[in-house]
Structure formats: C-alpha cells, structure tokens
Amino acid sequence: MIRMYICVCNAISERQVQEAIAQGAGDLSDLQAQLGVATCCGQCAETATEYLPGGRYAAEVAATNAAQPQRTVEATLLSSVEVRRVA
C-alpha cells in the first residue's frame, strides 16, 4: 500500500481525507474540524481542497467510495453518568 500524506504536520493521509469527505465533509473548514488539515503551517490547504467536490481529485474520491462497501456502526449511548468521589 502506498500512503500519500496530505498534511505532513499532522500526519494526515490521502485516505483519511477521502474518508472524511465520504462521511460528509464539504469544505476545508469541515476537514480542519474533523482531521486538523491545514491547522499548522497551512501548506496542505490547497491540496486538501482538491479532494473536495469540484476539485481535481474529486472523481478519484467518488470512485474510491463507490468501490468500498458501506459500513454500519452500532453504538450504545449512555443517557447519564454517575460520578462518585472516593476518599
């Protein structure tokens, strides 16, 4: 497997960017919030946006997502948590 890093500062790979977009990231601020892309030096901002819809690599992201099976995740959420201090 060849891994291309989009953001060297935060060690964010091309695959992570593609997955974030597949999960709904629609602009650079979404990628920044989800992954931390372009939050240090900012040199990766232009490359990261090329993976977003309308970008140079958007078709590649769509093809990758179409080839991957959909995953379902089940989670149990706790409605309340009790915290006790022990002396």
Q: What is the average per-residue confidence, as pLDDT, rounded to a whole number?
A: 83
CATH class: Mainly Alpha
Portion in strands: 5-15%
Order of helices and strands: EEHHHH
Structure report:
It is built from 4 helices and 2 strands, in the order ββαααα. It has a single domain (5-67), classed as Arc Repressor Mutant, subunit A. It is extended. By secondary structure, it is mainly α.
How would you summarize what this structure contains?
This protein has 87 residues and is mainly alpha-helical. It is 37% helix and 6% strand. The longest helix is centred in the last third of the chain and has 10 residues.
What's the layout of helices and strands?
Layout: E1 5-7, E2 12-13, H1 14-22, H2 28-35, H3 45-49, H4 58-67
Antiparallel strand pairs: 1-2
Which key terms come to mind for this protein?
37% helix, 4 helices, 87 residues
